[in-house]
Design brief:
92 residues; alpha+beta; 6-stranded mixed beta sheet; 2 helices; 24% helix; globular
Length: 92
């Protein structure tokens, strides 16, 4: 779920676009499941996920980057500036 990266740490996310509200729904396999209200069109759900992660992890927008899974529910985000241990502590 969380792995060290040269620029910080990566977080595996299972997205649920088009939900009734934005929320972290727990674990889904080796990823965290996050629901967002944005639809999966024109990158709107991805942008909503970045915004959710920014607020949830208390980091700047520029620290969150989608590495893989642009058109897939299974995504990997890079969280710059946090070690794997720091990210694990914030994810809980």
């Amino acid at each position: 779920m969380i792995q060290a990266h040269a620029e910080g740490a990566t977080l595996a996310v299972r997205a649920q676009p088009g939900a009734k509200k934005d929320a972290m729904l727990g674990r889904h396999g080796d990823a965290v499941k996050i629901a967002v209200t944005a639809p999966p069109e024109d990158g709107r759900a991805n942008a909503a996920l970045v915004e959710y992660l920014k607020n949830w992890l208390r980091v700047k927008r520029s620290q969150v980057e989608l590495l893989s899974g642009e058109k897939n529910r299974n995504k990997v985000f890079l969280i710059r500036g946090l070690t794997a241990a720091e990210l694990t502590a914030r994810v809980g």
